[in-house]
Amino acid sequence: MECVNTVRRIMEGLVKDAYPGASLVVNANGETLINLTVGYAQLKPVERLMRGGMLFDLASLTKALSTSLIVMKLAEEGALSLSQRVSELIPDFSRTNAGASDVKDKVRVWMLLSHTSGLPAWLPLYKSASSRDELINQAVTSFLVYEPGSRVVYSDLNYIVLTALVERITGQRIDSLFQEMVAKPLNLSKALYNPLTRFSRDDVVATEYINGDALVGVVHDENARAMDGVSGHAGLFATAEDAAKIADSLLESYRNGAFLTRPSIKTMWTPWACGESCYGLGWQIYKRGVTTSGGDFLTDGKAFGHTGFTGTSLWIDVELGLTIVLFTNRVHPSRDNRRIDYARPIIHNAAVSCADKLTYH
């Protein structure tokens, strides 16, 4: 179809300006309409062409595709309650390095998921932590910087604390929880933490060029790297195809209850907290004119997604029946390239328009 070629030309036109390479998968009601790969998986120190089926560092998409799903599954099983105090599940959470903190006792599990806990947006914990356990402990005992529930401040620390929470409840690390609770039920063969344990460097897209080499298969996020590559805020790698499988399963869950029950997914995608943008539990809720990463044609309040610092994004529009996965390696060779911010809406608009033509015409 001509419109698919148009999308390809747009994506190719952005190579080397907005990103070295990209992979796009667009599904309508579980059927693949568009699957395109353009550009380069790596430019420095050697060039590698992008191929279909390569693994990307998902960065903060980990929050939506791993952590939020694990928490919702545990809630379904009765292992935790979304309204439970975090300090009931992690007693150390109620203290800081200055002693006990009554205000931290107010933080509920849903506040971590919706970025309303009061924890700071970010801290360079990797600079002082000498181990994964120490970094997690520093996050758990961090000071709050605002009253819990009073406003939205997007924070990686929320999801590092959630890492501690799910690991304490289950006695398993979050990478094994992801395999057991998400990857196996959905038959995902290329979605995992620390991908070099199963795949070669040639199967993985490069991120930043640092100290004379590119990061390949090693998580880009510094705090996650200090956590041995395994965290709830970053660390997951996947192909666009496997990410689309997760998205399709959630669309089906929204309609009929499948991977998650209908009550669970509606709870996850309810707007729990709204600042400039609205958040559900681990997911951003699309608002036209505000949520620029999704373009202009998704359905207000009925599309749910997330972005990742490395140049990844995923959107699910339950009204249109579309799942859109756009993965790029925009931080290669340098994180200083921010032109992905204008590239994303251009590609999404073209993809949604094309999907409309392919589906209804």
Give the ordered list of helices and strands.
HEEEEHHEEHHHHEEEHEHHEEEEEEH
DSSP, total strands:
16
Reported for the largest beta sheet, the result is:
9 strands, antiparallel
- Count of DSSP helices? 11
CATH architectural type of the largest domain: 3-Layer(aba) Sandwich
Q: Given this structure, which CATH class of the largest domain is correct?
A: Alpha Beta
Radius of gyration: 19 Å
Quickly give the structural class. Answer: alpha+beta
Proportion in helices: 25-40%
Q: Averaging pLDDT over every residue, what do you get?
A: 97
The termini sit apart by 11 Å
Major sheet: order of its strands? 3-2-1-16-15-14-13-12-11
Backbone shape: globular
